[in-house]
Amino acid sequence: MMDRRLRVVLAEDSVVLRDGMAELLGVRGCEVVATAGTAPELLAAVVEHRPSVAVVDIRMPPTQTDEGIRAAVEIRARMPEVGILVFSQHVEIAAASRLLADGAAGIGYLLKERVARTSEFVDALHRVADGGTALDPEVVTRLVRGGGRSRVDTLTPREREVLELMAQGHSNRSIATLLVVSERAVEKHVAAVFTKFGLPATDADNRRVKAVLTYLAESGS
User: Fold this and answer.
1) How many other C-beta atoms can be found within 10 angstroms of the C-beta atom of residue 198?
2) Residue of 6, 13, 63, 59 lying closest to 33 (CA atoms)
3) Which domains are delineated in the chain?
4) Of 41, 85, 133, 137, which one has the fewest beta carbons inside 10 Å?
5) What is the pTM of this model?
6) What are phi and psi for residue 108, nearest 5 degrees?
């Protein structure tokens, strides 16, 4: 699946970084259909090209505050089929909470200095484009420590560890591999999280997404 060509709109106010990223993504099989240096340019490019994913920096001209994330929230509202990958130097808890308020599917938040390989970034783009979630562990940790933690505090250390990995987009099998435990053990921890978060089974059974959203909502601003 990773050889599927993704269509990407890239928003970054640094021309050097933007051009370098566009070149690297092209080498990795992505099609950068447009680049943008400001939030209005980003919105216009997404409306015009309808990419698989929009890569967004939080702080963009003219004020260098939250223009990027406001544009991302607008894209999310107007074109929910477009994945959003925030790529920033900063962990902005309020911004992350705003973006995740209507669901975590198709959302990513990576920190520039913590992406060691281009392949990791491209993998995250594919995951977000496929409706998954790609959250840097530091972002998740800061969300955990940032606010009310009533139900989160009921989790054991291992249950919290499993939920953090779920929030990063890992499957039960992937979590089992990372934690060096059986997949059955992971399933038990996930079931315990569902129980503690008050998430009974339903026909649609989207408890996994709801658990992550509960985790992020209670741990946000």
Assistant:
1) 9
2) 6
3) 7-135 (3.40.50.2300), 145-219 (1.10.10.10)
4) 137
5) 0.67
6) -135, 155
